[in-house]
């Protein structure tokens, strides 16, 4: 968004126009645009307002009804923390008694907004001038929030009276995701160095952050929302009351469940992906751990809670003979299992009149869509199969959801 369009959008006339727009509809956007221009509304303002209307419609998934009064950019919305997750971030600072949080790389102000809703004072810093202006607009209703345009790492934390930091380094460049922490903006190592000045530090990172990038003194938490892994965070000092270790936060509807494994004794190296679990033959039930549990390396921990073991070392499927309800894993009843081979599998499914086939996989190179074409099923019954390894051997499990 160019500065002139931004100025028009944030003006009283622009805000009034945004408030008058109907709910966004891709089919009607051209008609709405032509009607507004014919009535004499500035063409640049119409374009900017309709873009915001489209982004607000997308943003409802992250911000709910708040999105209707916020302003966005496409990249800023993509990286913005979901509000339900941002509130979990903010509670860490509220419970630590933080007096002033520096939100470094605040983007559109999503995390600063959550802090403000909990009355935690926040100084939000953003390097991009357009994004900083939009963050200021989003945070205007909150007197405990201030936005500053500038280099986040150049902020004099001591002089500002900052006693806690939240940092969200940019992980997109040219519209693409950045996976190397050294390529974050600013680089992850530079952000982590801040804890030498302000020990109470939280850093939002990509869910696929390499385990080798996790400092030994960090509490690393992965977060899933309704089954999708959305982020990871590294927490230190007063905002990490759990101490060093890893955890998974599983959010589903109104529920929030946390699975934690501490590492006080340094029993596991920071770059270890998981604690080893017991391998056992297939039982009556198959458990598929939540993605946040898998990324946190807590599959074996969930197995202990379920009384279940691994189907194969290094593959995140668990099996047991008892059905145990858990927010950390989805349960399936095992109907059958056998070694994987195309012709026997086709014969098995055709004999049971299977047509609609759900294929789940882990630990195998088989492509589900290619296999579905090769099976050429025409029956009338549904079925679910799991392609994986059992004690290292390529196998098929026929299952049904519990």
Automatic annotation (TrEMBL):
The keyword Methyltransferase applies. Keywords: Methyltransferase, Transferase. SUPFAM superfamilies: S-adenosyl-L-methionine-dependent methyltransferases. It holds the Pfam family Methyltransf_25. One of its GO terms (molecular function) is methyltransferase activity. Residues 101-167 form the Methyltransferase domain. One of its GO terms (biological process) is methylation. Residues 329-401 form the THUMP-like domain. The keyword Acetylation does not apply. Gene3D superfamilies: Vaccinia Virus protein VP39 (3.40.50.150). This is Methyltransferase domain-containing protein. It comes from Georgenia thermotolerans.
């Amino acid at each position: 968004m160019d500065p002139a369009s931004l100025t028009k959008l944030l003006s009283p006339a622009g805000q009034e126009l945004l408030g008058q727009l109907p709910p966004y509809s891709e089919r009607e956007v051209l008609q709405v645009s032509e009607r507004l221009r014919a009535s004499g509304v500035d063409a640049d303002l119409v374009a900017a307002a309709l873009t915001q209307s489209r982004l607000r419609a997308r943003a409802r998934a992250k911000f709910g009804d708040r999105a209707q009064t916020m302003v966005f950019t496409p990249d800023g919305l993509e990286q913005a923390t979901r509000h339900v997750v941002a509130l979990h971030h903010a509670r860490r600072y509220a419970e630590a008694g933080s007096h002033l949080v520096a939100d470094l790389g605040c983007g559109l102000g999503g995390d600063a907004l959550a802090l403000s809703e909990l009355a935690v004072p926040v100084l939000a810093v953003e390097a991009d001038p357009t994004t900083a202006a939009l963050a200021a607009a989003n945070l205007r209703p909150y007197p405990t929030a201030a936005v500053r345009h500038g280099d986040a790492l150049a902020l004099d934390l001591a002089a500002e009276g900052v006693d806690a930091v939240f940092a969200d380094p940019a992980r997109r460049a040219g519209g693409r995701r950045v996976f190397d922490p050294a390529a974050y903006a600013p680089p992850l190592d530079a952000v982590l160095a801040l804890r030498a000045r302000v020990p109470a530090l939280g850093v939002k990172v990509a869910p696929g952050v390499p385990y080798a990038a996790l400092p030994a003194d960090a509490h690393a938490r992965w977060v899933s929302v309704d089954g999708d892994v959305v982020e990871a965070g590294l927490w230190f000092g007063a905002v990490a009351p759990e101490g060093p270790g890893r955890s998974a936060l599983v959010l589903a509807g109104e529920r929030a469940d946390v699975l934690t494994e501490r590492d006080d004794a340094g029993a596991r190296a920071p770059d270890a992906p998981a604690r080893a679990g017991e391998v056992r033959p297939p039982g009556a039930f198959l458990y598929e751990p939540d993605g946040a549990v898998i990324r946190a390396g807590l599959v074996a921990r969930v197995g202990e809670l379920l009384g279940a073991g691994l189907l194969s070392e290094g593959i995140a499927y668990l099996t047991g003979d008892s059905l145990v309800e858990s927010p950390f894993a989805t349960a399936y009843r095992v109907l059958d299992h056998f070694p994987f081979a195309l012709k026997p599998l086709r014969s098995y499914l055709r004999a049971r009149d299977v047509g609609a086939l759900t294929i789940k996989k882990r630990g195998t190179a088989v492509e589900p869509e290619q296999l579905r074409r090769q099976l050429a099923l025409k029956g009338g019954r549904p079925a679910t199969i799991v392609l994986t390894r059992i004690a290292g051997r390529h196998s098929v499990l026929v299952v049904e959801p519990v």
